[in-house]
Write a structure and sequence with these properties.
The complex is a heterodimer of chains A (399) and B (296). Chain A has helices at residues 15-23, 47-59, 80-90, 100-109, 126-134, 148-158, 180-185, 231-237, 251-269, 276-287; strands at residues 7-11, 28-32, 63-68, 94-97, 115-117, 139-141, 161-168, 203-205, 224-226, 241-244, 291-292, 318-326, 331-336, 340-341, 345-350, 353-359, 363-364, 370-371, 373-374, 380-384, 394-397. Chain A is α/β, with parallel strands linked by helices and 399 residues long. In chain A, strand 1, helix 1 (15-23) and strand 2 (28-32) form a beta-alpha-beta unit. In chain A, helix 2 (47-59) packs parallel to helix 3, helix 3 (80-90) packs across helix 4 and helix 9 packs antiparallel against helix 10 (276-287). The radius of gyration of chain A is 22 Å and the shape is globular. Chain B is α/β, with parallel strands linked by helices. Chain B folds into two domains: 11-163 and 221-272, Aldolase class I (TIM Barrel, Alpha-Beta Barrel), CATH 3.20.20; 167-215, no CATH class. Chain B has helices at residues 46-54, 73-85, 96-104, 122-130, 144-151, 175-182, 226-231, 247-258, 265-272; strands at 11-15, 28-33, 43-44, 59-64, 90-93, 111-113, 135-137, 157-164, 167-171, 191-195, 203-208, 211-215, 220-221, 236-240. Chain B has an eight-stranded parallel β-barrel with strand order 1-2-4-5-6-7-8-14, surrounded by four helices. In chain B, helix 2 crosses helix 3 (96-104) and helix 8 (247-258) packs antiparallel against helix 9. The termini of chain B are far apart. Classes of the chains: A alpha/beta (399), B alpha/beta (296). Chains A and B meet through helix 4, helix 5, helix 6, helix 7 and strand 8 of A and helix 3, helix 4, helix 5, strand 9 and helix 6 of B.
Chain lengths: 399, 296
C-alpha cells in the first residue's frame, strides 16, 4: 500500500499529448488555452478541447490544470472573465496564475475555482507563501531557485501545498524577470513569445569594450533540470506535486519522462528497488541534453551551464506505437514513427509493460509482404515480439 | 535650481549611480539598499543611507527590489524596521515578503510595487492599491499609450522610466564568472558587455552578490514624450544615470521641459543621445505562428 502519495504533473501541448501523459502515469496535466498562456506558440486547447480533456482525465480520476500565467497588459484582460467561467464550466481542477490582478479577477468572477500560483511569480520564501495562502491560493509552484532547506522551511512554516519542477528546461533568469527576448527580438517573453535568447552565443567584452576572445562563445544556456536522485528527499520534505516542464515537447518525450518518474516515485513509495543508472540514461537520451539538480542541493556553478557540445539533433529514437498484439503468433502491429530495419535491436515499454529488448527479425507490410525496412511515417507493419506487449506501448531503439 | 513641482505636477526621480549626483536638480532620488537591490543604481548600506538623509532636501526612495531568499528574511525585517525610523519617502519592492512584513508589523513605510517588468496594466496596479500599496513603477517594456491608459485608470501614483538604460535580465547565477572559469581566463572588469552579430548593440552585464544582471544597451530617450506625460499627470518620471556621461545635461533638459521652457524638443533630445524610443511606440509580439514543436 502506498503512503504519502504525491502528484506527478505533466505538461500537455494538445489533446493527444494529454492522453499520452495520463496513460503513461501522470496524475494530473497542465495545459494552456488559446489565450493567456505562456506557450503562445504551442497548439494549445480550445474551450471544447479543455472540456474533452477534463472528461477524459476525470474518468481516470486524474486532474487538469489550466495556465493563465502571462504578465497582462491592459488589453489582455479583455475576454478574461468569460474565459474563466468557460473553463470552470468545462471542469478544470485549478488554474495556474502569476499576476495579482488576474488572481483578483478570478476570485471575483469565479470564487470556487482553485488557484495555483505560477512559478512566474518567483515565490521563494515563507513570507511570500504566507501572503498567497492568506489570499486563498491553494498551491504555490515555487521558484526554481529554491533550495531543499528553503522548500522545507516554507512547507513547515506555512503548510501551503507546494509544487516543484523535477525535470526539463530551465529559465536561466529569474522567472518573470527576464525580457531579453523582448529587447533583442521584440518577442514578449512574459506573454508567451520567448525566443530563448539565453541559448544564443554572444561575444563578451570587458569594460573598455575589448573582446575577450575565445573559441567557445559566451552563453547563458543552462543544462536541463533533473531531480531524479532527489525524488525521495522531495517526498520526505512534503512537496505535494512533482512537475515536468515542456508543453511543446513530443508525445515520445512526454511518455518517456512521465513513465520513468512514475516508476521511480512508485518504487520509492513502495520501498522497492529501482535502477537509477538506467533511469538516468533514459532521461539523458530522450532530450539529448545533460540534466542536473540545479538549485536544490547547491548554488549552480560552471558545471550547470552549457558552453558547447550541445547535441540538438532531432531525436530518431521513437520507432513506433503498438496498435495490437497477437499472442497466438507473437506478432505486434506497429504504427511506424521513425526508420528501422531488420536486425535492429529495439525496446518496447509501456504503462503496464516492463521494458523488453529484442532484435527485429521480421517485418511485414500491410499487403503481407516481407520487407527489410520500415521507412514510411505512420506506416502500419507487423513485427515479431516474443513476449506480450499492449496497445499504446512505445517502441524505441535500444538504449 | 530645483524643479518647483507641486503635488499635481510630474516630478523627476533620479536613479542615482554616483553619490556626486545627489545634488543634481531633481525632486527625488532612488538608491539601492546594498545586497537587497536588483536595479542598476548606486547601492548603499543602511548606515550610509541614514547619513545621506540627514542632509535631506529631497525625497529619497530606497530600492529593495531583489527576490528574497528565506534565509534573508530576518535581516530584511531588521532593515525595514530601521527604515521606518528614517525619513524616507518609500521603498520600491518586488518580493511579496516585503509587503507582508510591512503589513504584519504595522510599519509606516510607503511602498512602491513593481519589478522592472510586471507593472504592465492598471488592473494589477489597482489590486495592489486595494491592498494598501498606493504607488507602482511602470514597466519600460510597454507602449506610451499603455502607460497613459494605466495612469488614467488608477488612483495609484506611478513612476515611469523615461530616460536611461534599464535592466532587462536578472539571474541568481554568476554567468560571467562561470564562463570565465570555463574558458580559463581572468578579467578584472567589474562591468562587461555582450554583443551578438545580428544585434550590433553592446549590452552591459555585471554581477553582484545576488547573481547576474543585464542592462539594455540602448538609452531610452523619452524627452519628447514629456509633454504628453505631464498632460496626463504622470507622478514621477524615472531617469537612470547608469553609465551616462552627460547626466547633468539630461537633467537640465528634463527640468526645462517640466518648466515649459523648451519648444525644440526633438533637437534637444537628439543632443542628449540617440533618440531611441525602445517600446514607447512598438508593441511586442508573442504569437509568432501556429504549433511549432521545437522541443523547447
Amino acid at each position: 500500500m502506498m503512503e504519502n502519495r504525491v502528484e506527478l504533473l505533466a505538461p500537455a501541448g494538445d489533446l493527444e499529448k494529454l492522453k499520452w501523459a495520463l496513460m503513461y502515469g501522470a496524475d494530473a496535466v497542465y495545459i494552456g488555452g488559446r489565450d493567456f498562456s505562456l506557450r503562445a506558440n504551442a497548439t494549445n486547447f480550445s474551450i471544447e478541447e479543455i472540456r474533452e480533456a477534463c472528461l477524459y482525465a476525470h474518468k481516470l480520476n486524474k486532474k487538469v490544470y489550466v495556465t493563465i500565467n502571462i504578465v497582462f497588459h491592459n488589453k489582455d484582460f479583455k475576454g478574461l472573465e468569460e474565459y474563466i467561467l468557460d473553463i470552470y464550466k468545462a471542469g478544470v481542477d485549478a488554474v495556474i496564475v502569476s499576476d495579482l490582478g488576474c488572481i483578483m479577477k478570478i476570485k471575483e468572477v469565479c470564487p470556487n475555482i482553485e488557484i495555483h500560483l505560477s512559478t512566474q511569480a518567483s515565490c521563494m520564501n515563507k513570507e511570500s507563501a504566507k501572503f498567497y495562502k492568506n489570499l486563498g491560493i491553494k498551491r504555490v509552484v515555487l521558484a526554481r531557485e529554491c533550495s531543499k532547506d528553503e522548500i522545507k522551511n516554507i512547507i513547515d512554516e506555512t503548510g501551503i501545498d507546494t509544487e516543484c519542477f523535477i525535470h526539463g528546461a530551465m529559465c536561466v533568469g529569474l522567472s518573470g524577470r527576464c525580457v531579453l527576448s523582448n529587447y533583442m527580438t521584440n518577442r514578449d517573453s512574459n506573454r508567451g513569445g520567448c525566443s530563448q535568447i539565453c541559448r544564443w552565443d554572444f561575444d563578451l567584452y570587458d569594460e573598455d569594450k575589448n573582446e575577450i576572445k575565445n573559441d567557445t562563445k559566451f552563453t547563458m544556456c543552462s543544462k536541463d533540470l533533473s531531480m531524479l536522485r532527489y525524488i525521495e528527499d522531495m517526498i520526505n520534505i512534503g512537496i505535494k506535486s512533482f512537475k515536468i516542464e515542456g508543453r511543446m515537447r513530443s508525445i515520445y518525450y512526454i511518455a518517456t519522462i512521465v513513465h520513468t518518474y512514475r516508476k521511480v516515485i512508485d518504487a520509492i513509495l513502495n520501498k522497492e528497488e529501482f535502477d537509477i543508472i538506467e533511469a538516468e540514461r533514459i532521461l539523458r537520451r530522450v532530450a539529448n541534453r545533460d540534466n542536473v539538480p540545479q538549485f536544490f542541493d547547491k548554488k549552480p556553478g560552471v558545471n550547470e551551464q552549457y558552453y558547447l557540445g550541445r547535441e540538438e539533433i532531432s531525436n530518431q529514437d521513437f520507432l513506433g506505437i503498438v496498435l495490437d498484439y497477437d499472442e497466438k503468433n507473437n506478432i505486434a502491429t506497429i504504427e511506424q514513427r521513425n526508420y528501422f530495419k531488420l536486425g535492429d535491436e529495439v525496446q518496447i515499454f509501456g504503462p503496464n509493460t516492463k521494458t523488453i529488448t529484442f532484435k527485429i527479425e521480421k517485418i511485414i507490410d500491410e499487403e503481407n509482404n516481407l520487407i527489410d525496412v520500415a521507412r514510411h511515417p505512420r506506416q502500419i507493419i507487423k513485427i515479431n515480439v516474443s513476449s506480450k506487449v499492449s496497445k499504446n506501448d512505445i517502441m524505441r531503439i535500444k538504449y | 535650481m530645483l524643479t518647483k513641482s507641486g503635488d499635481n505636477m510630474s516630478k523627476i526621480c533620479l536613479m542615482l549611480n554616483n553619490i556626486n549626483e545627489f545634488n543634481l536638480k531633481v525632486d527625488s532620488i532612488l538608491i539601492g539598499l546594498k545586497n537587497f537591490n536588483s536595479l542598476n543604481i548606486l547601492e548603499l548600506e543602511i548606515e550610509e543611507i541614514e547619513k545621506l538623509i540627514e542632509d535631506k532636501n529631497k525625497e529619497i526612495f530606497i530600492s529593495i527590489n531583489k527576490l528574497i531568499h528565506n534565509n534573508e528574511l530576518e535581516e530584511l525585517k531588521i532593515i525595514l524596521k530601521k527604515l521606518e525610523g528614517l525619513n524616507i519617502s518609500g521603498v520600491f519592492f518586488d518580493d511579496i515578503s516585503i509587503y507582508n512584513i510591512v503589513k504584519e508589523n504595522n510599519l509606516n513605510i510607503s511602498l512602491i510595487w513593481g519589478n522592472s517588468h510586471q507593472a504592465t496594466n492598471y488592473n494589477t496596479i489597482n489590486s495592489w492599491n486595494r491592498l494598501g500599496v498606493k504607488n507602482s513603477i511602470i514597466s519600460p517594456d510597454i507602449t506610451l499609450e499603455e502607460i497613459i491608459d494605466i495612469k488614467n485608470n488608477t488612483e495609484s501614483k506611478v513612476f515611469v522610466p523615461i530616460y536611461g538604460m534599464f535592466e532587462i535580465f536578472s539571474s541568481n547565477r554568476f554567468l560571467v564568472k562561470n564562463y570565465l572559469k570555463y574558458i580559463d581566463k581572468n578579467s578584472d572588469s567589474k562591468l562587461h558587455y555582450i554583443n551578438h552579430k545580428i544585434l550590433d548593440t553592446y549590452y552591459p552585464i555585471y554581477e553582484d552578490s545576488n547573481g547576474t544582471h543585464i542592462i539594455n544597451g540602448n538609452i531610452l530617450n523619452g524627452l519628447e514624450e514629456m509633454p504628453k506625460l505631464i498632460d496626463n499627470k504622470i507622478d514621477y518620471v524615472l531617469i537612470n544615470s547608469y553609465i551616462i556621461s552627460n547626466i547633468e545635461e539630461v537633467i537640465d533638459a528634463f527640468n526645462e521641459v517640466l518648466n515649459g521652457k523648451i519648444d525644440n524638443l526633438n533637437e534637444v533630445a537628439l543632443k542628449l543621445s540617440d533618440n531611441n524610443k525602445v517600446f514607447l511606440y512598438k508593441e511586442t509580439i508573442y504569437k509568432v505562428k501556429s504549433s511549432d514543436n521545437d522541443g523547447k
